[in-house]
Amino acid sequence: MEGAQCTLCHLAQAKFACSCSLPAILICAGCLADHIEAAGTHLPVPMQKKALLSGGPGNEVCDECRAKAAVRFCLCTTPLRKFCEGCDFTHYQKARHMTHSVHAISAYQSVASGKVPLETFRKKQFYINDFQLRIGEELVQFDTFTKQVEDEFGLLLAQITEKKEEILRDLQTQRVKLVAHLNEIQQIIENKRYAEFFEVATVLDEYILNGYSSLQGYSEKMFRGKLELQQIKDLLAQSVTYELDENSLLRGAFVDIPVLKGNTLRLYNGRSLQCKSITLSQNTNINNGTAICFIGADVVLCCGGDGHNDVYEVNIRSGDTRKVASTNTMRRWVGIWNYRGVCVYAFGGYNGSVRLTTSEKYLIERKTWTTLSNSMHKAKWKCSVCEHSTGLYISGNNEPGSSLECFNLQNETFQLLRTESAGCHSILLCVEDKLYLIRKDTVEAAHLSSGPNRAELAVVKTIPQIENGEYWLCQPAKRCDGKLVGLFNVSSKPCGMFSFDQVQVQFIQVETFTY
Q1: Nearest in space to 227 (alpha carbons), one of 145, 340, 338
Q2: How far is CA 381 from the centre of its chain?
Q3: What is the pLDDT of residues 139-165, one digit of tens each?
Q4: 254-512 has which fold?
């Protein structure tokens, strides 16, 4: 690899390697700033490493306050800006949504010199991606919790009449205290996230430059923090003196599974299995061919079905129902997935005549559908979808065969992983780096730590078969008490709620649904 040319200009000798794509892009010193600035990337690098990128140590005074000594500089602008400890934290707070860098820049000399094989460098990037994903997931959980608290206060304030002015004044006073506590919690989480993320980044930087001499330093610095909901509830108890019956603070530890048809909603508690029936605010065409996924704490998106392409947003607490934009194509038994609360993907399905290779994307805020420019390699219906840091995995049936594909979320392209001559509907689940496929009387599993190219499914357990064993995951699974709980059907009929324990590799039906 000595003397390799820059991938971007094809003129100068490469000095760096960036893992924003695989295989890695090789970059010279001249093209490095343009490549980073194009995506507005924020990636902290210790000051002693500046010579590798800019050719010299530079001024050691902070560019922001121009008083204290600089300790880091940021690759988000050209020329590079330096920051002291205080200004560095403020700088990354302003760009909190960009701190998960997609450009993991590292010194190219370790790869070029032959100390580190390029394949080893790629594997390390998967570890970084997984770390970033876990931090993002915990922040999403906290944002959802904050929204639930705000919704509960809005509902409570709406119910207070003019005769309760004294209570209202007291409640407003308590609300100020609650907001102060939430701000304090948010600040604690941001500080922890900032400190742990850049501690890992600094260790990885040293680790790469030293030729990957040891794994010990990296493994010891991996993020182990968890959002403790109980601690937050304790803080809330100190500030809120009113008793809020059946609010989201008490529901947070449970999973509710909605079963819908027409204008009827049944809400099952994933732990107690108690059922609550709700009549929707309007009649719908939701049936056993409709796919459902959560797009908010209490709101689900109901997509397609038998004989129609209608789409609805339903509040599972109030029953409030809104018909939104229909899919561009009628899709029955479609595979559906909510990606980070921004958009919902709908893969394949059946239009009444043929199985489909096309897919669509729903922007949750704009409430619009667009058809993806790329199609799946194989047509699929009764699709099952799950997510991993390497992409979305989709399984489905196109009689008489079935197939498994991986959807790259960066460029929205599909990669065919497996095809079979025999067709069978299945449930697809992902737990950390392990992919599970459940059908008939078998559970298959594959490791995803090395990416989709090396994901080979193999039978890991035989299970009791439920009815004909052809399962459709009509609602993505949610976690409850350490297990995955979701809704599936057999032979195109609502069948029930299932539970999957990845430790025992146990798949069971815990509730049967009938209309």
Answers
A1: 145
A2: 24
A3: 777 778 788 878 777 776 666 555 566
A4: Neuraminidase (2.120.10)
